[in-house]
Amino acid sequence: MTEKKFNKYTVTAALPYANGPVHIGHLAGVYVPADIYVRYLRGVGRDVAFIGGSDEHGVAITLKARTEGKTPQEIVDHYHEMIKNSFASFGISFDIYSRTSSLQHHKTASAYFDNLYKKGVFEEIDSEQFYDEKAEQFLADRYIKGTCPTCSFAEAYGDQCEYCGSTLSPTELIHPKSMLSGEVPIMKATKHWYFPLDKYENFLREYILRDHKEWKSNVSGQCKSWLDGGLRARPMTRDLDWGIKVPIKGASGKVLYVWFDAPIGYISATQEWAAAKGKNWEDYWKKEDTKLVHFIGKDNIVFHCIIFPSILKAEGSYILPNNVPSNEFLNLEGNKISTSRNWAVWLHEYLEDFPDQQDVLRYVLTANAPETKDNDFTWKDFQTRNNSELVAIYGNFVNRALVLTHNFFEGTVPEQQELQKVDKHTLQVLSSFPDRIACALERFKFREALNHLMDLARLGNKYLAETEPWKLIKIDPERVSTILNISLQIVTSLGLLSKPFLPNTYDKLSKILNFGHLDWKDAGRSDNLKKATVLGPAVLLFEKIEDDVIKTQIKKLMDTKEEKKASAVQITPIKEEINYDDFMKMDLRVGEILTADPVPKSNKLLKFTVDTGLDHRIIVSGVAKHFSSQEMIGKKVTVLLNLAPRNIMGINSQGMLLFAENEDGRLKLVAPDTSATNGADIS
After folding, report:
1. Which domain holds residue 193?
2. Where among 188, 205, 239 does a domain terminate?
3. How many domains are contained in the chain?
4. Which stretch of DSSP H or E encloses residue 50?
5. Entry pTM
6. In this structure, are 94 and 148 located in the same domain?
7. What is the pLDDT of residue 569?
8. Do 606 and 661 fall into the same domain?
């Protein structure tokens, strides 16, 4: 299927933070689907610019630099190269992989801000923000930690709770502390330039909810939730010394907010690429016949669908994103991928442990892609999909067709002669696959597209099983000639259609079959390989992965967990000293859970009715991923009774239930003995 109204395509993949290596969650969520889509577009002859790069500003970088005793530039230089090389090794075919510390990007982002400033877009606002007196520095959101007001997670950042996913402002945190000194910050006056996001609500509702009803429900749903909650002006500058300097008077010591600067990185990278290729970059950003597509993870939806389109709209000359096919998260062996806990499969380590098997990981991550919900990667599933699908279905068909041709026709393509009913039916089905796969890819249904590709391999296996050329060779060689010709035509189409998904496999088949001049438009035909074409030797495209290999990978993960557990025991510091009077201010009581219900529109919160012995009260807690509603009913619990009430998703929560977090991130109930009386004082 062809979108004739679009003459050009600008496809971007989220800019990863250059403060660490990339892992399989990044590949599954963003980069493999983006690469599949781009390779498909190129295959059907579309004019496409595939833009990527490293996000090298923001607090995450400065925190890493402080931790390692290096400069921010040293950090980003190191990880930019590591990330760039990992992507290249996995065949992520960027037209350019740039970086936001480049001179071109600094010029572009600075000029963009200055343009909006001169248009009068920003609101200059004096406000009080957290300031660390000991460090003598204003604190960016990520320099502040405290207790989340939504789920009571004690390590929430000033901009987001990574446990429940709530977007926060630093002033909403309970017991905030500076990550620089550990001190309680004070409020101090500062000036910033705010983008009036609230003025763009009507535009965004029309743009997202009316004009783009084809967007994935997880994307439009999150956008609608933001819009329904009411937008407000957001500062586009920060008090930091690392980033793009704010290019106006009175802004000394301030840099552009990373989420203003980073998306403009797509534009500056396009400028670099276009200049090198002799193209006009504006054709890819300012022409109505260009389709702009952002591939991102779900944690970036608000920035790419709410903030960036509004900034583009404010400037006035840019096209808006046509689609933002965001994926959900990929978990690992039942637990959330965590870089801080080293609970991840890192790409550079995979390349060492599984040399020349990049396509296996691309296949598994696509087959198990978190397109509509969070999915789980397990090493056993990785092994099963490789052995039962790539080896037993795809590789088996290709190998059988090639080996039989070498055995019976000396490795040259035999002639296709008179067709029988089974041949005609098989060729008819073969001709349908390019459109079936293309239709799925145009709709960003990558798992569906991959299933169609595997069905083509199944078609080939079925055809060989039905015709049994090994039985006919001595009595009807002409019939075998036709069977193997058709089988090789199927192999050829399988190779051509594999290019977006399995680029290394495509390269191998291209050399074996000598079809270098063919492309996607030729797939599905019955005459791609000409009679007497000399084939290369039959080689195994995929190799079986043995149990001991998988056990080694699982052990590596489990060892990481044990190391983290031991490390936590050794280095977790005692919290600051309190006196007896401080402790006595806390009213801890025995309670009993009477009812437990999920909170609507939340997959993390549970609403409890608790018998405290003094009253029945409502308490909301972010534990739904650890406990079911039913298993909590009747449990004895420890309740902090005199915590000030908090409004959590419209519910007045009166108190806190106490839980302990294990080293694997799972919560355990801090529960009194079942014989304890409701309301009993804990002291």
Report:
1. 119-239
2. 239
3. 4
4. strand 47-54
5. 0.81
6. no
7. 40
8. yes
